[in-house]
Structure formats: structure tokens, C-alpha cells
Design goal:
The complex is a heterodimer of chains A (about 375) and B (about 400). In chain A, strand 9 and strand 10 form a beta hairpin. The model of chain A has no long low-confidence stretch (mean pLDDT about 95). Chain A is of the alpha+beta class and about 375 residues long. Chain A has three domains: about 120 residues, Butyryl-Coa Dehydrogenase, subunit A, domain 1; about 100 residues, Butyryl-CoA Dehydrogenase, subunit A, domain 2, CATH 2.40.110.10; about 140 residues, Butyryl-CoA Dehydrogenase, subunit A, domain 3. With about 400 residues, chain B is of the alpha+beta class. Chain B folds into three domains: about 90 residues, Orthogonal Bundle (Butyryl-Coa Dehydrogenase, subunit A, domain 1), CATH 1.10.540; about 110 residues, Butyryl-CoA Dehydrogenase, subunit A, domain 2 (Beta Barrel); about 130 residues, Butyryl-CoA Dehydrogenase, subunit A, domain 3, CATH 1.20.140. In chain B, the strands form three sheets. Chain B has a four-stranded mixed beta sheet. A four-stranded antiparallel beta sheet of chain B has the order 2-3-7-6, with no helix packed on it. The longest helix of chain B has 30 residues. At the A-B interface, helix 7, helix 8, helix 9 and helix 11 of A face helix 7, strand 10, helix 8 and helix 11 of B.
Chain lengths: ~375, ~400
Amino acid sequence: MALVLTEEQQLLRDTATQFFQERVPVANLRRLRDTKEPAGFDRGAWKEMADLGFAGILISEKYGGTDFGPVGLGLVLEQAGRTLAASPLVSTVLLCGSAVQLAGSATQRQEILPAIAAGELIMALTLEEGAHHNPTRIATRAVSEGSSYRISGKKTFVLDGHVADRLIVAARTSGKEDDKSGITLFLVDAKTKGVSIQRTLMVDSRNAANISFDNVVVSADNVLGSVDGGTDVLDQVLDIARVGLSAELLGLVQAVFDQTVTYLKERKQFGVVIGSFQALKHRAADMFAEIELCRSVVLDALSALEARRNDVPQAASLAKARLSDTARLVTNEGLQMHGGMGMTDQFDVGLYMKRARVAAATFGDGNFHRDRYAALEGF
Amino acid sequence: MEPIEKFRLETREWLEANCPASMRTPTPEEETPWGGRNATWANPDSKVWLDRMASRGWTAPTWPKEYGGGGLTKEESLVLGQEMRRIKARQPLSSFGLWMLGPALLEFANEEQKREHLPPIVRGEIRWCQGYSEPGAGSDLAGLQTKAEDKGDHYLVNGQKIWTSYADKADWIFCLVRTDTAKKHDGISFLLFDMTTPGVEARPISMISGASPFCETFFTDVTVPKKNLVGELNKGWTIAKRLLQHERDMISGMGLGSGVGSSASLEALAKDYFGEANGRVASAALREHIARQKMDGKAFALTLQRTAEEAKAGVGTGAASSIFKYYGTELNKRRYELLLEILGTQGLGWEGEGFTEEELGVTRSWLRSKGNSIEGGTSEVQLNVVAKRVLGLPD
């Protein structure tokens, strides 16, 4: 487990903590929401994040990245989770950047990775086709026509889909829906003819889109990785994203818990602070225990990615399941313990609860990952 | 070669040469090596193995050599543990002396007491029991009433203890006694005495599991020499609390699944008892339940590991350790409930024909596991401690 941070990582954590607290506090998310900001995130803040090296955190120095690795990324995401900072980190860096780094040709890497690291290119992975995460249930088809492909299908819940400059499309080139093989990844410019993008306003005030592809023609040069070999790449980048989201949720859970414990020490009823009531003490202590376990599984999953351990899938599912469920517990309890004030928009706990649900549903909730863990472990 | 690797090779060689073949298998209940004056050896190899390990002080690897211990560094002790696990060697000695009393004596006892009591613990010659709880002092342990009166050259002990594990089999007891009735916590002292002293009587209590590991222990005018007081008079509560920490550490390890039913995996049992479909446990509901249990167990194990690593590196607050007893025991109870569900009616036998030893063992262990969240500080007391000490919530 990567417990003792290097000097570089400590510096990164301190930088990230200060940056998100001062530059992207919860008030920033409120402003984006209330102004219906078209981008759905703060482009200025994203540029600053790129300048701090956050956008290039998984990208090697050769391509203009900072290459701090997964543990470094986890440190940044945890801090982003604390302040509910909206940014294209998941869509552009964790998913698309990783996919290009893993499967891209030299040309594709050269063209895309430096632009991501510089914060100049926003990308989105179009994957899901139903209301539940299912990376192999893909009906969208790409038919080979000589030196090009013709893509048709509908995608949903595409993170940052409405602001992305380029898309990675997971489409079926062979086999039938639910087959593990036969999926190919394509790089598609968002402005290509036949691509229609509809922004979906989500409960967490962040970005997603429904995107349909109507006979979209792309050159065979735009295949990312091998034809029919997309699943292997998807598995890897999805695990990176799951671990990243778990790190974000860790920060979120810790923030809600800290705010709740503070409230328990301040709010008075019956002439005493409500934190003196055993009914609340025990629930708070129980959450503390769950959160300690959360921290362990997130650190372990980040270490697994960093060391390229062969149990990355198990570690990722362990982390994502636990963090999804604990985030539900802690936001529900946090709201309840804030009483009526927790129900008001003025208090942040509701915002945390909304984000917790979306992050939980992104790339597999507790149910999905317990089932996946069981399958990985042979039962 | 690094000295630690040299140590590893020598240890491996010694274990290979000295660990009897039958000591490289899981320990059946009846072969638990408790030691003591009246020790019985269901398997004679247990005694051979204990004596060999004790001769090197390796029953207590990190205790100082002058008290019979192995004098190993923490790192060497870890290596010894790894090498023992490598050949699946049994623990040579199960002992409250090793797990609870010894560490407290090393910290609080005087030189004479250490020399008298520690070496026999290492060699498994004296079996200890713990005189803590009383009928009127459970969670409120400091309310204990068993009193020790100063009679000049000795103390006179009168009172009753309860839940004294194996008091009927123990040779000595470490006992909390009241030496000042005007004060609560500051009126408690820590005494050691021989269970064969006149006036000591232990009566086993029948438990729901059918076993009787606990006793009611009565003291009627028991004479205890003054040299058997550990630490200062009326300062026993500090020792008592520290020892409780050792006890909780011992109990929280249970969450990782030791004991009956731990050798077979939950999923293997489920496939066996419930059936298999396409290589998976046939019931989706049960499968999800098993996955949850295994994932919680893994998360808990990682937390123990993280805390140990943080302590070694000198980072972190150590606050996580306050949840170990609570989480570990609750996890173990859930595990046995799940085992029972998996076994169905085969997990509900009491004795006799129609059930395997393993099945009956699971049933009894399920019943025994209920005590995990009561003994050594209930779950509720543990949560109080976390709320107060870690979260700073007021009384």
C-alpha cells in the first residue's frame, strides 16, 4: 500500500488541497448550477488545473504530462471530492486519456495526449446504452466499408458529452449484444455529420449527454486499438475510472462526515448539544468505522494500479462497491442528523447527497461490483 | 546478504528440521496447546513442538531474552511468522499469559515479578486466567467490588468474579481487586495469585454452545503475599486498561476468520450445499451475501495492514485501531450467520448421527461467536469509546 507519500506526492496533495478549497469550493458548483453555465464546469479553473499538472497526471512526460501516476491522481481526486469540484478529470483524463495512452497509435498519442495535458482538449467516452452500467451490452454498430466505418446507434449518460471536442465511441464490429468480443473503439470528432448531442441535466448539476450516431462515417485510421479488441482496453480504463471515482467519493464522504460531526457538536436541543445523545453517537462511530475501511480500499486500489498488480479488477470493484454504498450511508445519515436544515438548499449536505448518487451509478454501483467481484473470484 | 535474509534462511532451516509433520496441519479444538501444570496432550507432538519453540523463546518472539523470550526485532518476528505460515506450522502455545498478561508485566511489573512469571509463560508451564468481570461489574468494569484488605504482610481477598475463562483449568489468576472503597477507578489494584490457594473456587458455567469455557470464581478469605501486587497500590486501573487493549487486539483478529469453518471458503461451501449454475453459486441472493461478506473481510484486513504500516512509518493517527474490536467481532458474527444460512438444516444439528464434525463445529462456533461482541468490551462500549476519544462527542 502506498502509505508513505514521496516528497513530490506530498507537495501535490498540499497544492490540490489549497487549490480546491480556495479556487473551486462548493460555492463554485452552486454558481454553475444557478447560472446554468453552458459548459457545466469552470473552464478557467480547468485551465488552472492543467497548469498545475492535474490534467496530465497520468500522461508520460514524453507527451507533455506530469506522470505523477495513479496515487497522485487519487490525491487530487480526493480533494476535488471534498469540495464537489466539477471538472473533466474523469471523462478526459481517466477514461479517454488512459484509453489513448493504452491503445493509441504513435500518431494518435502525439495528436491527443499533449492537448489533454495542456487542458485544451475535452474528450468523452460514449459507452452506456441503458440505465445500468453494462460495458458489453452494446448494440451500436460500426460497419466496415472499405477504408472507413459507418456508425449507427444511441448512447446515454456520456460524461461531459455535450462539451467534448472528440469522442471515443464503443461500437460493435462483430458478434451480438452482450458478447464480450467484437467491440471496437473509434475516435470521432464531435462535429462529424450524423452525430447529435443532447445535454442531460443531472441531479448533481454536472454534465452528461445522450448522443446518437446516425450513419456517421469515420476513416479506419480512427480505430483506437485493434478491431474487435475494445473490451480489453475498456476493462482497463473503466477500472482506472472506478478507482478514481472511489477516491473522489472518499473525499466526499469525509467532507460530509466532518461537517456532520461539527454540527452534532454545535446544535442544541433539550438544553444540550445533540452530539451527547447516544443514539447519534453510535451511528457516528459506526460511520467512522466504515470510512476507515473506505480509506484502506481506496489506497489499496490506487496502489494496485500504480504497481500494475494483477488483481486490479478485484481491488477496483472492492473500492467502488464500498465507496458507493458508504457514500449513500454517510450522506443519508448526514442529512438526517442535520434535521430540517439538511433538507434546505442552503446547506451543502444535499449537494453532496446528489453527487454521491451519480458517482455511485457511474461505472457500476455496489450491486454491480459485488457481482463482478464474485465472478472474478470464481463464484 | 542482508542480515534479515540470513535470519530468514536460518529460521526456515530450523523450522524445517524441528516442526513435527503433524504440527503442520490446522489445530483441532481438542489439541489447542494451552499448557499449564495439568496440561493434557491429545497429540504428543504438540508438547515436542512447544518445547522446541520455547527453547528458542519463539513462543514469545519479541520478549527480551532475559525473561525467556526470543529477543527478536519486530522485523525478525514478522519473518518468523511468515516462515511459520509458509509451512502451515501451528502456533505452539495458546495462552492468556502470552497474549494479555505478559505484555502488561513487561510494562508495569518489577524486576522480581518479571523473572518469576515471564519465563514459565514462555515455556507454557503456567496457565493464567483473567479475573476482571463481576456479577455487578460488566461494561462498568470499574464498579468491581471484590476486595483485598491490607493485613500487614499479606492481602486478604474476598468476592466473586464471573466469565473467568478457563478458571477451572488455570494455575494462576491476574485479578482486579478493590483496595480503596472510597474511590472508583483510583481504588483498584492488580494482583496475581495461585489458583490452588485455599479459598479459591471455580465453577464452570454452561453456555448456549453447550461448552463451559467460562467460570464463576469465588474468593473466600484468600491470602495473597504482598509481593504479588503489580504496580502501585490503587493504580491498577491503568494496567487493567492496557491489558484490555491487548485483549481487544486478540479478539478483533477473529474477524479474519479463524476457527471452525474457516478452512473451507464460503463460496465453496455454498456451491456444495446450495448448488452451482454455470460455475457460479446457484442462488444470486446468497452469492451477493457471500460477496459482501468477503469484501468486508478484505477491507477490514487491509485496514489492519494499513494501520500497521502507518505505525511503522510513523504516519497517521492510529485512530483506525479503535474500531478493530467492534468491526472485527461484528464481522465474525455475520460470517457465522452466513455459514449457517449456507449449511441450511445441516448447520442446525446439535450432536450425534446425521451431521459431520465440521457441520456440528459450525453450529457450536456460531453460538460461541455471539459472545465476541460482548466479551472484552461490548460493541456498544466500543462505539462509546470511538465517539468520545476519536470524534470528540461530549458526554
